[in-house]
Amino acid sequence: MRSEKDKMLAGELYDASDAELQADAAAASAWMARYNATLAMPAAERHALLVERLSAVGSGCVIRPPFHCDYGFNISLGAGVFLNFNCVILDVVAVTIGNKTQIGPGVQILTADHPRDGAERESGLEFGRPITIGRNVWIGGGALILPGVRIGDDAIIGAGSVVTRDVPAGATAIGNPARPRA
């Protein structure tokens, strides 16, 4: 029999109130409390804390606190990635961010999703869809990246945009919903 965590990681319907997942979330909360108190600390000390919790952290990666995530262990950051203040990553499944990507303040990257059918949603089960952000992407402040989105290398996402579908490499996407600019 598969655990709720195994189901979550596979992107299948799972019960987020499962004891193992609640323990993982509590561990992430304790880590965030420590990390978010490090604003005045040297970058090297903050980097060491990122390596402690996240799946992969490239050299020169910076996340300015406060930072919030569900678990942390599903987040992979390439070299030179920069996340500005108040970013949120709901990482029930993989979030991969490529080298040299810059993410503005208040950006939300949300893999968590819910069934569209009302009766199924009422069961309380949820699922996730992975998000992949390429290399050298610039995401403006306040943007929302929704479940299952892929953003190609060298793309730009305008501030405040809501990205509901894939953005090709090199494209500039703006608006709600975000659409590539002609």
**CATH architect. name:** 3 Solenoid
CATH superfamily: Hexapeptide repeat proteins
Mean pLDDT level: 97
Order of helices and strands: HHHEEEEEEEEEEHEEEEEEEEE
CATH-derived topology: UDP N-Acetylglucosamine Acyltransferase, domain 1
- Order of strands, main sheet, comes to 2-5-8-13-16-18-19
The structural domain count equals: 1
Strand % is 25-35%
Helical amount among residues, as a percent range?
10-25%
CATH class membership:
Mainly Beta
Task: Report the biggest beta sheet as strand number plus sense, adding barrel if it closes.
Answer: 7 strands, mixed
- Count the DSSP helices: 4
User: First CA to last CA: what distance?
Assistant: 50 Å
Low-confidence region ranges: none
Query: What structural class do you assign from the helix and strand content?
Result: alpha/beta
Shape designation: globular
Tell me the Rg in angstroms: 16 Å
Compute the number of strand runs. 19
Describe the structure.
GO terms for molecular function: acetyltransferase activity; O-acyltransferase activity. It comes from Bosea caraganae. One of its GO terms (cellular component) is cytosol. This is Nodulation protein L. Acetyltransferase implicated in the O-acetylation of Nod factors. It is a single chain. This protein is α/β, with parallel strands linked by helices. It has a single domain (4-175), classed as Hexapeptide repeat proteins (UDP N-Acetylglucosamine Acyltransferase, domain 1). Helices cover 21% and strands 26% of the residues. It is built from four helices and 19 strands. It has helices at residues 4-9, 19-35, 43-53, 118-122, and strands at residues 56-57, 62-63, 67-69, 75-77, 82-83, 87-90, 95-97, 102-103, 108-110, 112-113, 127-128, 131-133, 138-139, 144-145, 150-151, 156-157, 162-163, 172-175, 178-180. The strands form four sheets. The chain has a seven-stranded mixed β-sheet with strand order 2-5-8-13-16-18-19. A five-stranded parallel β-sheet has the order 1-4-7-12-15, with helices on one face. A five-stranded parallel β-sheet has the order 3-6-9-14-17. Strand 18 and strand 19 form a beta hairpin. The longest helix has 17 residues, at 19-35. The radius of gyration is 16 Å and the shape is globular. The model has no long low-confidence stretch (mean pLDDT 97).
